[in-house]
Amino acid sequence: MTPQFSSTFNFQAWSEERLAQVAQSLKHGIDVHAPAHLGEAMRYAALDGGKRLRPLLVLAAAEAVGVDLEAATVSDQPSALAALNAACAVELIHAYSLVHDDMPCMDNDVLRRGKPTVHVKYGEAQALLAGDALQALAFEFLTPQDGSTDLAVQATQVGLLSRASGYQGMAGGQAIDLASVGLPLTEIQLRQMHRLKTGALLLCSVQLGAVSAGRPSSMVFDALTNYAEALGLAFQVVDDILDVISDSATLGKTAGKDAAADKPTYVALMGLAQAQQLAQQLYAESLSALAASGLSTTATAALRALASQVVERKN
Amino acid sequence: MTPQFSSTFNFQAWSEERLAQVAQSLKHGIDVHAPAHLGEAMRYAALDGGKRLRPLLVLAAAEAVGVDLEAATVSDQPSALAALNAACAVELIHAYSLVHDDMPCMDNDVLRRGKPTVHVKYGEAQALLAGDALQALAFEFLTPQDGSTDLAVQATQVGLLSRASGYQGMAGGQAIDLASVGLPLTEIQLRQMHRLKTGALLLCSVQLGAVSAGRPSSMVFDALTNYAEALGLAFQVVDDILDVISDSATLGKTAGKDAAADKPTYVALMGLAQAQQLAQQLYAESLSALAASGLSTTATAALRALASQVVERKN
Fold first, then answer.
1. CATH number, residue A285
2. What digits encode the pLDDT tens for the residues B103-150?
3. In a 3-state reduction of DSSP, which class is residue A35?
4. Could you say which of B31, B143, B168 has the minimum Cβ distance to residue A167?
5. Can you give the residue range of the structural domain that contains B106?
6. Closest CA to A82 of B89, B135, B155
7. pLDDT tens digits for B76-109?
8. What whole-number distance in Å separates Cα of residue A204 and Cα of residue A90?
9. Based on the structure, what is the number of domains in chain B?
10. What residues in B contact A174, CB-CB < 8 Å?
11. pLDDT at res. A25
């Protein structure tokens, strides 16, 4: 299958503009004057780092259902603000999970995105609190107190994000991951773990964008859900591939770490060539899902480009 | 000031019935089958323990504004369910904060409510995850997906709880606490720390109940806020007093811990007699606030009884 990009869509320009909007909102929303350097640690964890795939998925999905995110007018439109707030919220959840994951009692990582991890820089206790406060802040972002977004949309987004983050989602997946080190998992078990650990938040990102102007039709919602599920799994398969074929400098984190830690991976399970084939197949599935949404190819251009990024990425 | 309890109000019976409702909802909402023993650790942290002051404040405030919490009809009334869900949500936030507080990098406590702490029983990594998942679950409780509560109330409650939990509230207070060990604080600084660390969640409990049937008049909301602020501070002053005058068996946790850890306390700041006087003064303030609410003494009976419990408690 050949991706049919709209000839007028410029992913680079689009993502730069959207990421600037997200960065500005995040910066505005994390009070550097928060007590006792907590704000500093939170900013260190959440600002200027990473690929920001999740917020881009939120915004691309919002645009797919017709939300106008033009920077000049975004603050006048409840649906655009709801999408932007949700983009920040998923990034905050992602950021908190990395802070806690890196702690000595979990992965004990000292380097993240080329910088010392939060607990190395601010101490373990502050890292624990910063992660906790980042999670709370995600829900603050979804519920602005100034009447700028619709209350029903706020409630819907909180319902989605809390479930994707908690025991039915990310935290549950991490618990399975913890328990499965050194165990030979089947492909079904591996899929289940990743569906929760990374898939739930990626899926939620797309859904948060899709509901930012209210509930779309079930045809659209279900198609976007299918897109996100294929993309989420592809993301993890590619992660496992990169852990094997890339070096630490390109990855920005320690390469070969999963294999060294005896963690179950797709490459370990099916071999490199098969894993690469699976990634391509999931990419094709994500595009088919979009084609089935009934949305125009112009509307879904950013979502298609993001799927391509996920499988083509080098880190 | 002599408290004017309604002659027909039986606090013991009221609190037992309300706590049974909370316990049932919590039990129902924490899936013991959550992946890899995460549900077990969450239940261990959140079920059958503690005084449950926060959920009782939510429910007492809800009843003060006219919400009917009779067990037989609660499931048919959106406002009663919103109050009950909020009661569970604050308890989950409180429970997660205890799990994380007890971890080795924070207070390194091995005993809580007479049982081994979560990280002692399940390991540090699982304790970290369980705390994270309990926080997310609080927001799941506030946003039921079955249409049983009003979406605007859901959004309002999430807005209140997320702010009370995060850097502007509990987590911010904990950061100040961490930074202030061994430092001589002024009474203003000590009040500020406790206003965030414990006061914010106690205040939020009352406010969550107060909005469970929609926003009450500002006269009522402001009066309940004043009540809760006085009660929150009284709670901390009494905590400091008990740390000095009680023994570990009565407290259910290590007595004399704050003094040993060189933590700033009201007793250290002003002496025992003055601290006891301050507690009584704050109790009187909480009752005056209720009297100024315009609500009937019958409606506020449970709130008055809870204020009395806070200053009279032995643990």
1. 1.10.600.10
2. 999 999 999 988 999 999 999 999 999 999 999 999 999 999 999 999
3. helix
4. B31
5. 11-312
6. B155
7. 899 999 999 999 999 999 999 999 999 999 999 9
8. 8
9. 1
10. 129
11. 95
